[in-house]
């Protein structure tokens, strides 16, 4: 009789411990499921809000009247600091929501997480579209935080990529793609990118993101070359590539 | 654990259910606001730049 009670009590304690462990495991599973929702949905919501506000602000500064040009003095080329808005990247091959992306200086996490295309400042400082030559290099998230480059693998040779700044539309065409490379392959953002079809200096554009989707194992790069610069008119009529 | 929490919530069942729901929402809020933003950079899902090994 006594041993039966003692045995029952021990069994009860073991069952309670197992039950607690089971509940903790279920909880862990739920937390991970919620984390997936956070990564793939909530960060997009937050990023879209941030990018929308900053994009509106950039357009407002553009519409503010420019200082009257003094005769004989060239307008100074703007110097951009990390975080500054540069313009907008238009990629017609992307899904509708991702076709227009705000471009900001810098590729640190704080900038990229706000749903923008970040301009490389290192390892190679990016050239700007208006520079006489060089490579305008940008990175953006593949998933979460706006996922602006989710469809980067859709781009193929000949697709247009347009950079909109205050005064110009810079129309590029894709010249080459690299579907997968090491994350240490910094040559893909060099002034004359390694592995690209380009052999000499020119006015290039490079987009990078991570691949395959939902991981950061490798990097993907898309290279484009400048074909045309259209001035912005009073109605900001987009170039034919975007119509 | 959940049984223990349920037994220690005050009031009749509907009130307990309401408090439990609020507790769940509070936990989700803390996760979204503090825990996930802290944990995310530590996980290898969001690096999109090429670099010499520093975080991207």
Automatic annotation (TrEMBL), chain B:
Superkingdom of origin organism: Bacteria
Swiss-Prot/TrEMBL keywords: Membrane, Transmembrane, Transmembrane helix
Transmembrane segments: 17-36
Record carries keyword Transmembrane: yes
Protein known as: Membrane protein
């Amino acid at each position: 009789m006594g041993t039966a009670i003692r045995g029952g009590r021990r069994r009860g304690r073991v069952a309670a411990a197992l039950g607690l462990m089971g509940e903790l495991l279920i909880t862990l599973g739920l937390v991970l499921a919620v984390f997936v929702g956070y990564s793939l949905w909530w960060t997009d919501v937050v990023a879209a809000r941030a990018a929308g506000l900053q994009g509106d602000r950039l357009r407002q500064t553009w519409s503010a009247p420019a200082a009257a040009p003094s005769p004989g003095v060239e307008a100074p080329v703007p110097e951009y600091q990390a975080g500054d808005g540069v313009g907008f990247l238009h990629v017609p091959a992307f899904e509708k929501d991702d076709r227009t992306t705000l471009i900001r200086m810098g590729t640190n996490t704080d900038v990229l997480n706000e749903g923008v295309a970040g301009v490389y400042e290192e390892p190679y400082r990016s050239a700007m579209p208006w520079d006489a030559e060089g490579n305008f290099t940008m990175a953006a998230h593949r998933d979460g935080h706006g996922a602006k480059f989710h469809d980067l693998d859709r781009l193929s040779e000949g697709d247009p990529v347009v950079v909109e700044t205050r005064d110009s539309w810079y129309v590029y065409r894709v010249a080459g793609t690299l579907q997968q490379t090491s994350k240490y392959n910094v040559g893909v953002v060099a002034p004359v990118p390694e592995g690209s079809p380009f052999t000499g200096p020119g006015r290039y554009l490079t987009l990078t993101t991570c691949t395959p989707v939902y991981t950061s194992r490798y990097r993907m790069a898309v290279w484009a070359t400048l074909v045309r610069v259209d001035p912005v008119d009073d109605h900001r009529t987009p170039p034919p590539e975007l119509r | 654990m959940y049984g223990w929490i349920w037994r220690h919530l005050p009031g009749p069942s509907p009130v307990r259910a309401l408090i439990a729901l609020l507790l769940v929402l509070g936990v989700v809020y803390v996760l979204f606001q503090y825990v996930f933003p802290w944990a995310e950079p530590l996980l290898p899902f969001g690096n999109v730049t090429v670099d010499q090994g520093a975080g991207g």
